[in-house]
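Hi X.,

You mentioned you wanted examples for the new student's onboarding notes, showing what a folding record looks like when two proteins sit in one file. Here is a clean example. The first protein comes first, with its sequence line followed by its structure tokens.
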Amino acid sequence: MPYDKSLDVEAFKEIKEFEGSRITVGVFSYNAGIKKLQLGRENQNAAGEWAFSKLGRMTKEEAQAIIPVMMKAVESM
């Protein structure tokens, strides 16, 4: 069965912006399944538009900002 966006329910979402990038912490439940934590990164290009990027590694500043958001997300699960 292909992915159906209408079945993906967002229970929590918070975005933290940094210089030239932002990290999104979200909790989603697909097709009434268990809630799962999702992390994503977007980078800003020269035109100021946001584009998906692999999250990979985080700086200490990013980790310190994201961990409290992740804890709030876990509480919503």
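Then the second protein repeats the pattern, sequence line and then tokens:
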Amino acid sequence: MSALRLEELSAATIVHVNQLSLKPGQEQFITPVSYAAAAAVTPAHTAWQRVVLDGDRVVGFIHGNFDPEATQEEFRAALWRINVDADAQGSGVGTFAVAELIEEARRRGVSRLTVLWERGEDGPEAFFLRIGFSPVGETPYGEVIGAIDV
């Protein structure tokens, strides 16, 4: 891999993001129910959406949300979505993207970042634990609430 870099999500890159492939079994873990419900009432200006590029190739996507007015703490500063192309998984793309989101949180004066995930084989739990998130609770839908101090 060449040097990874981030770029804001744009009309030019969204098509590539939508074509990112998954490994078998990962489809069921794309968007936790809680995020889908929260998205309906979340203002668009709170979104931080970036694509990860390896050279000119889109290899990942990360969606953070920064909304200090959110009524639920787990939505105030959160990693909402991360997708890494199946061929690029295990090569540091996801770790790079989350590190960049953590840096953005620091720039904004945020001290804690959260993420939700569903447990299950082929799910993202091992990744989130490996990069430093710790379980701190559970949603009414049974998703794990993870947090990392930034």
